[in-house]
């Protein structure tokens, strides 16, 4: 029977359309088989499938993955791959006593899983980002004899926020991925070409001083090394989980990207700029990342029903004006960009 299952598995792999699908489906089925049956996929028996219950899928697979902050949509994708293999088992007819249709419809179901993963788009604010960086610096880590990991994790979350690069792609960046360019005004940038979401090439421009700050703390002399090679995705998730409990706000690595998009939009009010920053093909996807402004004074109705006396600004002192400008990042950004446009700032 194991030989027959091996042949069915091979036939299933060969039936998949692309190399990317083969990789993803094999990964999903292997993960499921090991977590639920403690076996490789080719070792799944007729007995295993006849005794598989929804409680097994929920308690051994779905719940543990959720505990690790895996998105419901990702778990749903895993189950789609498993059901695909089940259909091939039915088509090849090796386990005749197993009701594959019932298995797929009632046991390997994903109806309880969310498809939009709203909680994974919780945005981190600038204030929370600064708190997180301090939290990471003070946190204790294993295998940290020189006590530098906290500073490195703080640099990691700062980098993810400032670039909007997804966590999986961030950990794949090597020093050799940076090239150096000069803008029309003479400003030097470190250009980063990064492969995101498996195949999409994204380009980010980091101010040279920011790149040098990263290099000073993270570079070990080998350009072929990963930039964040001494850090762990799992440790980052655990730290964010601890920090979330501390501030009572559910945050994940994706919160850095969502927070960056929200912050950038409220600084610029330029949805197309945010779309390019997130490397989205559709502006509809970008809008999902921009979280509602909670301040009532910044709502449309408040703005349109309030009569503002702008002449009051003329009565402010220089110190008062500077205090107001520096009190909010979006005001600083607007004043600075306007100053550059009117050439009153160098």
| Structural class by secondary-structure content | mainly alpha
Distance between the termini: 76 Å
Which strand-content bin applies to the residues? 5-15%
Biggest β-sheet strands, sense, barrel: 3 strands, antiparallel
What ranges have pLDDT less than 50 throughout 5 or more consecutive residues? Answer: none
Helical proportion? 55-70%
Radius of gyration: 25 Å
Number of helices: 17
Mean pLDDT: 86
Quick overview of this protein structure:
The chain has 346 residues and is mostly helical. The protein contains 17 helices and 3 strands.
Give a verbal description of the structure.
The protein is built from 17 helices and 3 strands. It is elongated, with a radius of gyration of 25 Å. With 346 residues, it is mainly alpha-helical. It starts with a helix and ends in a 5-residue tail after the last helix. Strands 1-2-3 form a 3-stranded antiparallel β-sheet.
Describe the secondary-structure layout:
Elements: H1 2-15, H2 19-36, H3 46-50, H4 54-67, H5 72-92, H6 100-107, H7 126-138, H8 149-163, H9 167-170, E1 178-182, E2 188-196, E3 200-207, H10 208-218, H11 233-247, H12 253-268, H13 271-278, H14 283-289, H15 300-305, H16 318-325, H17 329-341
Antiparallel strand pairs: 1-2, 2-3
Question: Can you tag this structure with a few keywords?
Answer:
elongated, three-stranded antiparallel beta sheet, 17 helices, 346 residues, single chain
